[in-house]
User: Fold these one by one.
Assistant:
Number 1:
Amino acid sequence: MAISPSAQNEDTSSIKTASAIDPVVVPKGQHPMTFSDISENALSVLRRLNSKGYDAYLVGGCIRDKLMGKTPKDFDIATNATPEQIKACFRNCRLIGRRFRLAHIVFGKDIIEVATFRGHHADLENNDAENKVKVKARSGKQVEDVLAKQDQQGQLLRDNVFGTIDEDAERRDFTFNAMYFSAKDQSIIDFAHGLRSIQNKRVELIGDPATRFREDPVRMIRAVRFAAKLGMSIPDELATQFKELGHLLGNIPPARLFEEVLKLFISGSGVKTFQLLHQHGLFGHLFPQFAPLLVDDKCREMQLVMQVLKNTDERINNEQRVTPAFLYAAFLWYPVEERAQTIINESGITYHDAFNIAMGEVLHRQIQRIMIPKRFSIAIREIWQLQTRLPKRFGRRAFQTLSHARFRAAYDFLLIRGQIEGGDLMELGEWWTEFQEVSPEERKTMLNVLRKEAGPARKRKPRPKKKAN
Ligand code: ATP
Ligand code: MG
């Protein structure tokens, strides 16, 4: 359904950045969002908050996606209730976050995020400032709590000053993310000309780009993510700031970046997102060991990342499972290979030892930038280690490798490497494809052929007999 023109702002001429909050109400029936688009759980949270006398709205991605003809998936709620008041409304509520406190209402696996309207930080005009307040601690004592805090670069380290819905809209990142849906009258309030940005297919930031990116550098990669996902353009005034301020991504806590980077590549638009990140010079701030190897569009590193992301996008769009471990294993594979070679050249140790050291070093450097949870870093190492085991197939080795929990991911990765590098790697991939498909008898035959091709087996030296004491 088209959005009713009467509800839109008439001037669609060249708006650069929406700096003013100028709410436009789109009444029920003049926009496509209805209750049937909203999950039962989200609706029940909205209704409960309303019934307790609070204002509550759906906000952000779910409305934007619906207005763009996509199916909304996760439902975020904004309210004038404080975190403690939200908690008092729900038994299944937990409060989370220090930098940005919010409530999670938990329905089994489904979690509805509820945020209190954010306000302005009037006395935070200067960088490196704090805004404190006395609060009552659990013990009953009065303690000081930091509500808002900014570092020297202007980055907001705390953002817990509460405000009105207008202020909340102004504190959001992009104009298309500042639209609110009310369950009371089913209207949408478009605070910052988000509809216009959707119509013009431009990613428009609310406020001054430099200030907003300094406050939270993650907004730069969010801009790229939305441009790729929504097929929008990035205005020059944002792109210029990426070059100026991209390095500030180095100040973001690695744990937060892990979540945001997942959304970049596990979204179904990974190829496009990567291309934009690379084009705008942001990829190197996330993967400083890999980006320098991407020297041109034809190099093997570029082919690898494109192939891996193409496969990942296809899997996501076919609703197949993907693991972040595979992506990280691929992005860091050539840095590991290169580092292992340098170690060998410098110290002359064996490939096996050099490879082990290189894996540790490359992972260690990467987690300074993006935290990788242990369960994934273990899997990444296994995928890498299996690359060195896949060529070794004699005796029981092929069967041991085949039964390894990480075989499938390692084999998929080998196929991609084979596609790019060809030669022996491609043949090895084909061998493993056949080995999985044939009968147990034929597997034995394949191994015998391999043995013959390798020439006569080396005789093992007899082990020295243990001396009897
Ligand atoms: P997605 O479809 O990927 O979930 P989303 O817009 O819902 O997109 P979320 O990360 O779920 O993205 O954030 C929900 C909303 O919170 C956003 O729409 C935006 O209004 C606000 N928001 C999120 N991150 C920021 C940020 N860094 N700065 C300002 N506002 C933000
Ligand atoms: Mg969301």
Number 2:
Amino acid sequence: MSRSVKEVEALILEAGRKARRETSAEPEPELVRPAEWPIQCTVGPGLEGAIACESKVGYVNGAKGWLIYRGYDVFELCAHSNFEEVSYLLLHGRLPSASEYAAFRKTLAEYRHLHSTLRAVLGFPVERMSTMAALRLGVMMMRQELTHMDEKEWHPRAMSVIGADEDSIPMETVPRGDKHAIYEFKRRRRLGPGPSGNGDEGSGLGACYHLIAGLSTVAAAVARVHRGRLPIEPDPDLGHAANFLYMMTGRRPSPVEEKVMDVALILHADHGMNASTFAAMVVASTLSDFYFSVGSGIAALNGPLHGGANEQVIHTLEEVREAGDVGVWLDKAAAAKRKIPGFGHRVYKAYDPRARVLGPLAEFLAQGEGETTDLFAVARQLETHVVERLGQSKQIFPNVDFYSGLVYRALGIQTEMFTPIFAVSRVAGWTARVLEYLENNRIFRPRARYVGEFGKEYVPLEDRG
Ligand code: COA
């Protein structure tokens, strides 16, 4: 790839200008301010419209197509920042100083080494599990590696069950001439208590760092095992996005590939009270810990109405290409009342700002790349048709998932990793929001409206016919 990072930045900034132009007619939103609790709001099914808490982490405005993290426009962050800096911003509420940034990068690089976790995870049939199930398993194993909270009940010890002599087994052949690519399971580093210093390693800032760093290692290992390969040891000299790509593909990425991966991770890092964030927060509100919360976030993200949509998009594009005619394919989909993956959004009734960035990046990466070029052409046609039919009438536009898969495919990433990548990024938002919520925690407890029967008389089993 001979193109430059500057070109990628220019595409992002242009996407931001286009977004502002196209939504300038929308009224400016009433700027947000703290509420007097209890508040009144109109709530629909699926808690639509419900306001459950206050947050300073991020803001989504569906009519303007705004996505803001801690006051910064996501277009600006994508153009100028990287995933580590954005994670710091989300967790701490401000951009780091140079020394804070260096220290944070170093901590993440250290936390990427998950020897016991990977050894435990590889004791399971990961190659036959869904990648999201394996990722969730990895998070539970990370919890075990870092915390001692369950030790009394921990019987039998997982490590002794999984195998006796892994410490001596070299786990990977050196890929494509890269040195230090063998995951050295024998090297163990005892991680000290997290920066919270409260000794409760499952619930402090240290757990957030551990999860942000570690999810990338687990996801990359799962990607390798799914391709019949063994994990690759993290490279401490690489940034988070570059290292993640390296651990998945076995190849150190070019600066453009690293930049694109950073942008994808930034774009997915936080998005209001979406289903997985809410799931993570509900679990945290019971004073369970960050690992259980993130595990629940992963579980919620797995569904095709949420994170799973990006994989469905690729399958759909392949199906449409086979069908040969986008219009005919859409007619059939509409007749079958099928929702088109990658379109529509509960909040955005304008073009999703994340799709505004990922669309041009997918196009940029697809140029001259054979199969990706074909699929991109199908995607553009599908977008044109769907927006023509449903844009005005139902405010249906591409969402974040529509182009993300094409971007990942151009980076050499297999389809079953698209949703885990979403988790590798969203863990920053999950942990930031949980951390914030716990400052004023109140257990989540909405109500259901009972529409069942009353006054029924119990009939013994033998009399029920
Ligand atoms: N394709 C075709 N029609 C769609 C559509 C899609 N992807 N998404 C919504 N619609 C239509 C619905 O059929 C409905 O039409 P109706 O009013 O005639 O019944 C209308 O738009 C409202 O849809 P609804 O499902 O009520 O919106 P929602 O806010 O509950 O759901 C999503 C939002 C994201 C779950 C929904 O748009 C969807 O399923 N999209 C596809 C999956 C996807 O890409 N998910 C990733 C989200 S980031």
